[in-house]
From TrEMBL:
The lineage of its organism: Eukaryota, Viridiplantae, Streptophyta, Embryophyta, Tracheophyta. InterPro entries: Aspartic_peptidase_A1, PEPTIDASE_A1, Peptidase_aspartic_dom_sf, TAXi_C, TAXi_N. Belongs to the peptidase A1 family. This is Peptidase A1 domain-containing protein. Residues 101-431 form the Peptidase A1 domain. One of its GO terms (molecular function) is aspartic-type endopeptidase activity. It comes from the Eukaryota. The keyword Transmembrane does not apply. The active site is at residues 119, 317. Residues 1-25 form the signal peptide.
């Protein structure tokens, strides 16, 4: 494959650039300019992503890797719900937990480009900065930006970060993310998203990072808490955005992140967004029942109920790959699914317990929310191995070793749908859309 490529200039022999230029040689679309307030969303394994594995993974490996990442992310989400900042113990293998979808943003004057991970369950933006200990090589260099400044301890924003400390005069903070911990200085600079300039955007300039959970070029939090992008761009975007996440089966497709109320779909079904004052960044919805085919599954109401005190309920999350339901809900759905599929022998693969090695006629699964039924076709429910001929139901029970009270509607189940977050009207919309 490499033999068909022109020789690369020596300058390009850093790993990241090598991947980037290989991808760009094959896929001319990687560089397309963005318009208005719409950013391109790439799967982290896309040919345009510098973070895709250097060796293509086998189907089984990539499924197992995504499951391992999910485990770390679920622990992160549980730590949010529990209100405790715990650093989960990554079991045995190294878990690299960069979230699944990335967007391009530029920071500073003149602009420096970063490919940041999109995370709906986090508020803050963090960017690895020059001199960071434990960050990857692609860092933002504040010294080269004429608009960069560090916030001091008296800044109002300093009161919104967890456990700020005042080393020297700058406002610094430590926090955990997945299996990582970071130390950062609260900073400000101009951020450009598609064609929109956001001057004086407040973010964490990462000085130190341990573990491997922090995305290599930073994180763009789309949660709705105090320091979030939504809060900081209130006038520009009015706390409204939508995304269409491309399927990881077609890594050449890109999706979109559309910021602000302009251009959002008119024909879309909505459900109410619920607010949990203790976990202000999470997007809770009211899941009332689940249907397999036409039959409503018998699930104990407590497994789905929203409870702002314990944090129980259902969230939409862009980072978890496979939907997780608390144990009693998952078992009921899985049993109903198996019954509908019929006699075929059930096997398991990694964390999936409903796999088939013969072709099956899959029923649909419908998530029934207040005011909105979302019926998922087989493409959002099943993962297939072309090589081994295995098909698995791509959902699982919430891990029972953590505080598992949260149902998570994950990104595989959201792929090729437009998901609209309309915070001012407290509603979340879902409509089918092929992201291309
Ligand atoms: C934050 O992390 C830094 C670097 O690891 C450490 O020196 C500092 O003591 C930590 N501060 C707090 C408040 O934990
Ligand atoms: C960032 O914070 C560290 C302490 O965590 C401090 O030593 C350093 O001077 C700060 N950098 C800037 C640019 O303020
Ligand atoms: C993606 O694009 C590359 C290069 O054009 C092509 O070789 C590959 O088959 C495409 N993959 C899919 C899944 O379409
Ligand atoms: C399941 O197996 C039984 C007995 O082998 C057969 O009568 C029945 O039709 C099968 N059901 C399905 C859905 O294939
Ligand atoms: C969802 O589907 C059920 C039938 O299973 C129906 O009774 C209900 O009215 C539907 N809800 C909406 C909002 O369409």
């Amino acid at each position: 494959m490499t033999s068909s490529l022109p020789p690369l200039p020596p300058l390009f022999f850093s790993l990241a650039f090598l991947f980037l230029s290989l991808a760009q040689g094959l896929i001319p679309k990687c560089d397309t300019p963005e318009h208005g307030s719409t950013l391109r969303v790439l799967h982290v394994y896309s040919p345009c992503s510098p973070f895709r594995p250097s060796e293509p993974l086998s189907w089984e490996e990539s499924v197992l890797q995504m499951q391992a990442k999910d485990q770390a992310r679920l622990q992160f989400l549980s730590s949010l719900v529990a209100g405790k900042s715990v650093v989960p113990i990554a079991s045995g293998r190294q878990v690299i937990q960069s979230p699944t979808y990335i967007v391009r943003a530029t920071i500073g004057t003149p602009p420096q480009t970063m490919l940041m991970a999109m995370d709906t369950s986090n508020d803050a933006a963090w960017i690895p900065c020059t001199g960071c200990v434990g960050c990857s090589s692609a860092v933002f260099d504040p010294v080269k930006s004429t608009t960069f400044k560090t916030l001091n301890c008296q800044a109002a924003q300093c009161k919104q970060v967890p456990n700020p400390t005042c080393g020297g005069s700058s406002c610094s903070f430590n926090m955990t993310y997945g299996s990582s911990s970071i130390a950062a200085n609260l900073s400000q600079d101009t951020v450009k998203l598609a064609t929109d300039d956001v001057p004086g955007y407040t973010f964490g300039c990462i000085q130190k990072s341990t573990g491997s959970s922090v995305p290599p070029q930073g994180l763009l939090g789309l949660g709705r808490g105090p320091l979030s992008l939504l809060s900081q761009t209130q006038n520009l975007y009015q706390s409204t955005f939508s995304y269409c996440l491309p399927s990881f089966k077609s890594p050449n497709f890109s999706g979109s992140l559309r910021l602000g109320p302009i251009g959002q779909p008119k024909r879309i079904k909505y459900t109410q967004l619920l607010r949990n004052p203790r976990r202000s960044s999470l997007y809770y919805v009211n899941l009332i029942a689940i249907r397999v085919g036409r039959r409503v599954v018998d699930i104990p109401p407590s497994a789905l109920a929203f409870n702002p005190v314990t944090g129980a309920g259902t969230i939409f999350d862009s980072g978890v790959v496979f939907t997780r339901l608390v144990q009693p809900a998952y078992i009921a759905v899985r049993d109903a699914y198996r019954k509908r599929v019929g006699n075929a022998t059930v096997s398991s693969l990694g964390g999936f317990d409903t796999c088939y090695s013969v072709p099956i006629a899959s029923p649909t699964i419908t998530f029934m929310f207040t005011g909105m039924n979302v019926t998922l076709p087989p493409d959002n429910l099943l993962i297939h191995s072309t090589a081994g001929g295995i098909t698995c139901l791509a959902m699982a029970a919430a891990p029972d070793n953590v505080n598992s009270i949260l149902n998570v509607i994950a990104n595989m189940q959201q792929q090729n749908h437009r998901v609209l977050f309309d915070v001012p009207n407290s509603r979340l919309g879902v409509a089918r859309e092929l992201c291309t």
